[in-house]
Structures are given as structure tokens and as C-alpha cells.
Write a structure and sequence with these properties.
The chain contains 3 helices and no strands. With 66 residues, it is mainly α.
Length: 66
């Protein structure tokens, strides 16, 4: 239910209510991808998603420098 609300609103607030680390981290990461709100990377607990989030942040920063 919260995933659907998140998809409609793009509001990361709803991710915190999703049970399970991987689905919750996936929720945060999907919003990061759509909004470039890299502050959400700190809410991610999975090393895989956290590293991906940080890599995306670096790539975006490099892209914006050009």
C-alpha cells in the first residue's frame, strides 16, 4: 500500500513504513533516481543500495560540472 502511495506522490516519507530492509531501501533509491535527492542515501541501510546511491551522486556531480 505504501509503495503505491510513494509511486503517486514521490514522497520518501512513506518509505519508512515499508517492512523489510530491501523493499524500504529500494523505495528510497527509486526516489533518489527520480528526484536526485541524495540526502535520502543516508536512510538506506543495504550496502548495495547505499553504494549505488553514492555512485549515482558522484556521477551526477561530475555530469553537472561539464
Amino acid at each position: 500500500c505504501f509503495v503505491t502511495i510513494k509511486d503517486i506522490t514521490q514522497d520518501a516519507h512513506y518509505c519508512q513504513f515499508i517492512e523489510g530492509d530491501t523493499p524500504r531501501d529500494s523505495c528510497y533509491f527509486s526516489i533518489v533516481i527520480k528526484t536526485n535527492n541524495f540526502e535520502l542515501c543516508e536512510k538506506i541501510t543495504s550496502p548495495y543500495f547505499k553504494n549505488s546511491c553514492k555512485s549515482l551522486k558522484k556521477a551526477t556531480e561530475l555530469s553537472n560540472q561539464n
